[in-house]
Amino acid sequence: MKLVNPLPNTPVILTVDDDMATRKMIGRNLRSEGYKIVEATNGNDCLEIYSRLQPDIILLDAIMPGMDGFECCQRLQELITSPFVSPVLMITGLDDETSVDRAFNAGAADFVTKPIHWPVLLQRVKRLIYQSHLYQELEIANQELARLAMEDSLTGIANRRRMDEYLEQAWERSTEERSLLGVILYDIDFFKGYNDTYGHLAGDFCLQQVTEAIKNSLGQQNHLLARYGGEEFVVILPEIDSSNGLAIAEEIRKTINDLEIPHKMSAITHHITLSLGVAVMVAQAEHSPLRLLAKADYALYQAKTTGRNQSVLATSTFDI
Ligand code: GH3
Ligand code: MG
Ligand code: MG
Question: Domain 160-313 classified CATH 3.30.450.20?
Fold first, then answer.
């Protein structure tokens, strides 16, 4: 179980020292500044407490029996994961150059020497916590930006950029492994009429409903569903053969057909339907994935022109 910082506005300091007197002194001085203090007497306890508590900062004694502070600091770096990067302030006791270098090389953010000069320690702790909170906020904002850059804002699935990237990787893998790679391109039938009849907002909602249903029907983790543009979508299917690719397309078609979203402007029935084009091939280094998409697009065109609400598999006669 992961303990959560019980007082989110009170920074938690983990102080690690084998000497009880030093721990008590550090505790007294920092508690009086409003920090919450958690103590560890050795490196192993430090690692264990860190994993449970993720304190805002670790004050780490360099010289301890068993695992020393340098090794402990190094091992902490493996546990510390972005964006919650707790800084380590090493307390060296030795101000020779090699100890300072060792502390920084082990991943320490800063160091102070014993005997501890309390105003200096307090200022460093304050600054390091402030910096790490700033870093966290920045990292979270960056992660959110990266996510948004890859996501379609209307449907929440992968956008064209993410699809291009994923397809490029899948294409390379297929080239190297001589494995089959499939794509399904699908498009809503008579969607212009749907917008004209029910309004653009209803059209947006329909795109969301259709996407949600398809997202839930896709099983495999390596199947990427993405918005290709407008009311056209793509599913990338690594390591799939034609019959399974076609079976998945049919599954998608039936899922949407069964939803029976009313569409009185449909020329073939009274609800929303999809047309789908499927293409499967082994990628070739001298071609780009556009070749696969073009085949699927042509199959989709066939599905549209020969009745809609159906899936068409591109055969070798579709080769371009
Ligand atoms: P077909 O059966 O041949 O596919 O006919 P269609 O009417 O669906 O084809 P067309 O390509 O002429 O129309 C696509 C429509 O999709 C036109 C456009 O207004 C609508 N559309 C594209 N993107 C969006 C969107 O984000 N929201 C909404 N509401 N409509 C969209
Ligand atoms: Mg359409
Ligand atoms: Mg279209």
Answer: no
